[in-house]
Amino acid sequence: MFSSQLSSDTVLFDDRKDAGERLAHLVLEQAQSVDGSFIVYALPRGGVEIGAAIAQVLHCPLDILVAKKITRPENPELAIGAVTADGQVLRSVHSRIPGWEDALNRALAKAKGQFEQFRDRPNVTATGKIALLVDDGIATGMTISVAAKSLRKQEPKEIWICAPVAPQVMIRQLEGICDRVLVLATPEPFLSVSRFYRSFPQVEMESAIADLKRTLQS
């Protein structure tokens, strides 16, 4: 890991390609010390390019696992929970509000809709494998936590959570829901994932789909 004493203004990565290559190097080092088959699950859209870099160095399949924040219409930045495309739900302390079911259903429909756009996916399962759950950064941990909950249903041998950057305060929480946490940097204060990238554009669906398709052809 990088030092947790980095400031919130420190640029750590040029872009997702740079972050993915650096994270892939760390994952490869860790993978060489364990016995087992690997499979990478990326959270679209931003996590797919990161996941593709890891799958390439491990010579393993890349799949996607869609999770969406559950938010209130009047405050879309506040996550009151998260849901995966297969219906796994995680509620935050802010979720005991009127309109929860409507908010959940909106997020679930969004997750299912995004999942269905990835038509070209590998015919694989995490059962008995070391499953790497990957995103381009972790802020609140809601989406990656509910993704881990969903992935656990497939009975993998282990789940590793991998990201270029996350808040230091999240590490212990993440360690409680998986077998290994691999994060390059844990700067404080942590205001947003994008602050640590020089270039952090929104990833278009076409780009994420193309990244996944390329791994199928390699």
From TrEMBL:
CDD domains in UniProt: PRTases_typeI
Keywords for this protein: Glycosyltransferase, Transferase
InterPro entries registered for this protein in UniProt: PRTase-like, PRTase_dom
Ranges of residues in domain Phosphoribosyltransferase: 39-166
GO molecular function: glycosyltransferase activity
Protein name: Phosphoribosyltransferase
